[in-house]
Input
Amino acid sequence: MTTAERLLRADLRDFRGYVSARSTRQEGSVWLNANESALPSLADPDGTSQRYPEPQPAELLKRLAAHYQVEPTQLLAGRGSDEGIDLLVRTFCEPGDGCVLIAPPTFGMYAVSAKLHGAQVIEVPLLDTPRGFIHDLDALATHTLEAKASLVFLCNPGNPTGATLDPGAISQLARRLAGRSLLVIDEAYGEYGDVASASRLLGAHDNIVVLRTLSKAHALAGARIGCVMAQASVIALLRRVQAPYPLAAPCIGMVLKALQPTALSELADRIAVVRKERKILHKRLSGLDGVRCAYPSSGNFLLVRFDDAAAILARLLQAGIVVRDMRAYEGLDDALRISIGTPTENAAVVAVIEGNARVSA
Ligand SMILES: *Cc1c(COP(=O)(O)O)cnc(C)c1O
Output
């Protein structure tokens, strides 16, 4: 029995999910099986959306799998990685009783999905060291096993910390949790760092799950497409729980375009700009009065501590610049998270923090 089969909710063992008109493959030219409109809409001149979309379009899976270097059977496409997180919780946590483990400060959706499902959230905080935030791997393993948490969510590179976790540490942790927990590695910012994807480890571990998204480096946050990658048996279980038609037809087309060679070469250009700007911004902010610490980052953002974060936030807002206030997060009560913008936008951030900016109305 695989780790996922063991962790599958007892009440879903025999559950097959909704069987939609599109999930049974059929041949034909006159489609009268799904109660769609036979006449098109003015709002959809090319007919993209007249019919329900395929639940998991073969071409999309093939291209995404090639892009992330896994097999199509090892990948589930969904509405952003947010849906992936939610599916994992709903598939592998007993409602009102299950348990997930997170390492704060981290992405908020892991705890939100868990709470909505009535699952307990156990926190093993990151360690704030002079080298930046690091995972307490021993404590993660111990607490996961002790609490019988079915899911461990780690973010790599970390949001909001920008810190990374190397594949060696991930496979070691996965080995300790084998048979007991799924180790979910959220690589929303994977494109911006230098660490290899944990998707390479899928063959060797039946309990590693990797999340990727088109929302960040691919610049398609509004299309709401992300992927869960894991061994095929895990993906098959998640599919039973997913909505019948999760992907909107216009968005499927958009992602296929985003995976074409010219779009991928633009992707590489955008990533190069972010990495260059991140380095410049980090260096400039690190030298400023009033900046306590700008953490090194492998994401498209910087986490920065200030002597007076409230004043900086107000000054930025007055200049029309909106950054993420992190002060409500435990241990980050002096911190802001600043996304890397265009070179002009980043220069404006520095000017405002330096106190040299002209306030724009
Ligand atoms: C932005 C982000 C996501 C992306 O979520 P989508 O639903 O794919 O837009 C996932 N995980 C982390 C850590 C993020 O910061």
In short: The CA atoms of residues 93 and 112 lie 14 Å apart. The chain has two domains: 3-259, 263-354. The mean pLDDT is 95.
